[in-house]
Design a protein that fits this description.
The complex is a heterodimer of chains A (317) and B (281).
Chain A: E1 10-11, H1 12-26, E2 30-34, H2 38-41, H3 44-49, E3 54-56, H4 61-72, E4 77-83, H5 84-87, H6 92-100, E5 107-111, H7 129-134, E6 140-143, H8 147-159, E7 164-167, E8 172-173, E9 189-192, E10 197-201, H9 205-218, E11 223-227, E12 230-232, H10 236-246, E13 249-256, H11 261-272, E14 277-282, H12 292-298, H13 303-315
Parallel strand pairs in A: 2-3, 2-4, 4-5, 5-7, 6-7, 10-11, 10-13, 13-14
Antiparallel strand pairs in A: 1-8, 6-12, 9-11
Chain B: H1 4-25, H2 30-35, H3 37-47, E1 63-66, H4 72-81, H5 123-136, E2 143-148, H6 156-166, E3 172-178, E4 181-182, E5 185-186, H7 187-190, H8 196-202, E6 206-210, H9 216-228, E7 236-241, H10 264-272
Parallel strand pairs in B: 1-2, 2-3, 3-7, 6-7
Antiparallel strand pairs in B: 4-5
Helix pairs in contact in B: 1-3, 1-4, 1-10, 3-4, 3-9, 5-6
Classes of the chains: A alpha/beta (317), B alpha/beta (281).
Chain lengths: 317, 281
């Protein structure tokens, strides 16, 4: 089976920072806004190089979303930066009316998503943001898996007209996708060919899915691994093509099973090709304090959980 | 340049439009619309420097943002009468498949509208963003916005008000419609806000008061003063004291007509008090 090499752990938020820095040099219409989290969002370099194109909003996320919407009127491409919790739930109505319904070209860039935010605990660990954002008509929803992909996605969304939710995280994780990749919104990445079971993963769970495929391979089970970085619009064809071969599927995400990637996949399959599915996701719960690794293990979001889910779904074929 | 009488004539026609629009669909918000008719007419026909036609980015012209979107009847009437879309389209207000939604939206592509509004408290942030885009673009034109007084109870306004002075956004004139009414009654009863003037001043804004907000000459004078105070490192606020329901005697000085349409008889009385000037749609 095809294997991937971790070129060294890096945080996805730094991929965002690097992508934003590049945009600052290449696209004069790109502007950035932040609600008092410059360091956490890795926006320092963009700000250093483009002070006139950066807006420090202060701790006022609702105002930030409205200002971003206004900046598009005049042709700017605003990138907002704050934690995922404050990028979505806190400002849902501002995004809904002033950005999504108003068709504004705002890029909502959200760090520290999910359990891997770690010790700060449940107040900051949003596990509902993908659901909130994918329900908004016209919103593109992306959850990247590593540093390189996050950087490429950041650059790509500037070229896409329309509101985008770009979700990434805090911890250092495996960096394994190509450094010079072109990011194609809505196009699933076929990482590993397999015949027995399909694993569709997003965000930090993609590397775990690759690890799971290796473990399954040692047990004689051939797993196909697909990276769904774009949850909306979903690459339905990639999913249907894969399960046509494997006849069963596991979805994996750092998110509540309600409203997440798994439900989007289930809808595609229910409509086109009913297929046994298991969900690796949190089970309608809040998070808690702990190290990222402890939390991912406790809430069943690691490679071991994916292996177990694959073994379960294989029996349901 | 329009003279006061011409602006009065447009206003009278706009009042007729408002009454007929809400009457036809038996819904909508006539009270606040009538209270701001003189302001809208003066703004669009005399105060703002506008280009012909409509493009979303609005570079090289003054822009207006309505935050309290429920007064869409006056907005739609004034936009149509200013040539943004056919006056006949006012006939479709709040009907299915119309570009004239209950609250203004860009979603249906109605010329003149740059942001959806209706969920209150969001318009000032948007206006500030547009003002900062103007500065980035080296465009010296101004941003105007309108907000209800009751709407100031939404906290996002105060984030925006704090931001505007901190960032020296001095190319914006935000007008507050001080009609003293909201859905559940007088603002002083529902949630007394104290001195709105003192609050804006404490937040570092220049405040201009227009005591007679339904008097076109007073609006012209006050807005000219407000405009003269832009470009001085501070945002400018206009406190526009209006009478809700102005121009239709039984709708005045009450919140009862905030979101209620007149019946056939009431419409007839309202139209009698406002004779046709430019021609009904």
């Amino acid at each position: 089976m095809k294997t991937y090499t971790n070129t060294g752990n890096k945080d996805t938020r730094s991929g965002f920072g690097a992508g934003l820095t590049e945009l600052g040099r290449t696209n004069p219409n790109v502007v950035a806004l932040c609600a008092d989290l410059i360091g956490s969002l890795k926006m320092d370099q963009f700000i250093k190089e483009n002070p006139e194109r950066f807006f420090q909003i202060g701790i006022a996320e609702a105002n930030m979303m409205g200002i971003a919407a206004g900046l598009t009127i005049g042709g700017k491409i605003p990138f907002t930066g704050t934690f995922a919790n404050f990028s979505t739930g806190r400002v849902y109505d501002q995004i809904r009316q002033s950005i999504a319904y108003s068709d504004k070209n705002v890029k909502i860039c959200a760090s520290h998503a999910g359990l891997t935010l770690g010790e700060d605990g449940a107040t900051h660990q949003i596990l509902e943001d993908l659901g909130l954002m994918k329900m908004l008509p016209g919103m593109t929803v992306i959850n990247t898996c590593d540093y390189n992909q996050t950087k490429a996605a950041t650059i790509a969304i500037a070229e896409h007209y329309g509101p985008v939710y770009l979700r990434f995280g805090r911890p250092s994780v495996a960096n394994f996708t190509p450094e010079d990749q072109t990011f194609e919104i809505g196009k699933a990445l076929h990482l590993v060919d397999g015949t027995d079971v399909t694993i569709v993963a997003t965000g930090h769970l993609v590397w775990e899915a690759l690890e799971a495929a290796k473990a399954l391979n040692e047990k004689g089970i051939s797993a196909e691994v697909i990276d769904i970085h774009t949850i909306k619009p979903l690459d339905a064809k990639a999913i249907i093509d894969s399960v046509s071969k494997t006849k069963c599927i596991v979805t994996a995400e750092e998110h509540n099973h309600l409203g997440g990637l798994g439900e989007s996949v289930a809808r595609v399959l229910a409509t086109h090709q009913p297929t046994p599915q298991e969900f690796v996701a949190t089970n309608d719960t809040f998070g808690e304090s702990g190290t990222p690794a402890q939390l991912m293990e406790k809430y069943g979001l690691n490679s071991a959980s994916i292996v177990k889910a694959c073994e379960t779904v294989l029996k349901r074929k | 340049m329009a003279n006061t009488q011409q602006l009065e004539d447009i206003t009278t026609q706009v009042r007729r439009d408002i009454l007929r629009m809400v009457h036809k669909v038996n819904s909508g918000h006539p009270g606040g619309s009538l209270g701001c008719a003189e302001f809208f007419v003066t703004l669009y026909n005399e105060i703002m420097d506008r280009k012909e036609g409509f493009d979303m980015n609005g570079i090289g012209e003054d822009l207006f943002f309505l935050s309290n979107g429920h007064i869409s009847p006056v907005y739609y009437s004034v936009l149509a009468r200013a040539g943004y879309f056919p006056v006949d389209e006012l006939n479709t207000f709040r009907l299915i498949n119309s570009r004239l939604q209950g609250h203004p939206t860009t979603h249906e592509g109605l010329p003149g509208i740059r942001i959806a509004s209706g969920s209150l408290g969001q318009g000032m942030s948007v206006a500030l963003g547009a003002a900062q885009a103007k500065k980035l673009n080296g465009c010296n034109h101004l941003i105007y916005s309108l907000h209800g007084d009751g709407e100031l109870q939404e906290g996002q306004n105060w984030e925006a008000i704090m931001y505007a002075s901190a960032k020296k956004v001095d190319n914006i004139i935000s007008t507050i419609d001080l009609n003293g009414q909201q859905i559940d009654g007088a603002t002083d009863t529902v949630l007394p806000m104290g001195s709105i003037k003192a609050k804006f001043e404490a937040f570092g804004w220049i405040v201009v008061e227009i005591e007679e907000g339904n008097n076109i000459d007073a609006i012209l004078k006050g807005m000219a003063e407000a405009k003269s105070k832009t470009g001085n490192g501070k945002p400018v606020c206009v406190l526009l004291k209006t009478v809700m329901g102005n121009g239709v005697d039984f709708m005045m000085h009450t919140h009862a007509w905030h979101g209620k349409a007149p019946n056939d008889e009431q419409l007839a009385i309202g139209l009698t008090q406002n004779a046709e000037t430019l021609g009904d749609y």
